[in-house]
Description:
By secondary structure, the protein is mainly alpha-helical. The protein is built from three helices and no strands.
Amino acid sequence: MAWAAYQFSIINAIKLDDYTADEEKAALKGGRGGRREMALLRETHEAISRGAEAFLRAEYSICAIFVA
């Protein structure tokens, strides 16, 4: 469980909002609608994060029954 918490802290430290406009353009080089794509990326990131958190809460609550 400590390893999972450590890995979570590393991934959670990555901030998508830290991109400047130039970095966004470089990241999305060659694509159309860079801001729209970055907004979609942020939305997808948030949805995955919420889903993963819900899954882990359910998983740990079930594991707690067997550990207790």
